[in-house]
Amino acid sequence: MLLYLLDLIGVAVFAVSGVLIAAHAGMDLLGGLALAALTAIGGGTLRDVLLNRHPIFWVRDARYLLVILVASALTMVYVAFFPPPGQGFLIADALGLALFAISGAQIAEAAGLSWLIVVLMGAMTGTAGGMLRDVMSARVPLIFQQDLYATAAIAGVVAYLVLQKLKAPRGIAVSVGVAVILLMRLLAVVWGMHLPRLHLIAA
Known about the structure:
The protein is an all-alpha fold and about 200 residues long.
């Protein structure tokens, strides 16, 4: 149930982020809905394909699509009457990243995969939808920008796995993993935190 709730909430907040980006890009209603859906289910779809989980999660359970429709509609109504919050997109994206990364890691963990694959599946589930959203809206994907993004997802999943290894209650492990990702992502946005850059030695 916890995994299912994480997935549904992650779908909702990523759908919100997709609509906000579509609004900033001047897309129409259909474009906003398409971008919301791509953001919300893109990472999970790629994860299910790679893990050979069929039917794909949103095909098996249409409630995911219903959540996308409701979250998108409510966001569209909001932006029609009020200006989008200045940092609203980044907050929604950070929360979606955190929830999807941990839920993706749990799915890979339940499949009995190695810890490295669990980390990779978690990070990919959290970042792939946002990458597709940014590419389709002609933006440089956040994962390729200077501040922490995929690194935050990896750190949160590792924290979750360490707590699981220490026999911590699953709810606590999930909460800490989500908190680590959310905190790192928001601190990266506020303070401009990033990994060290590569420097080439001049010949």
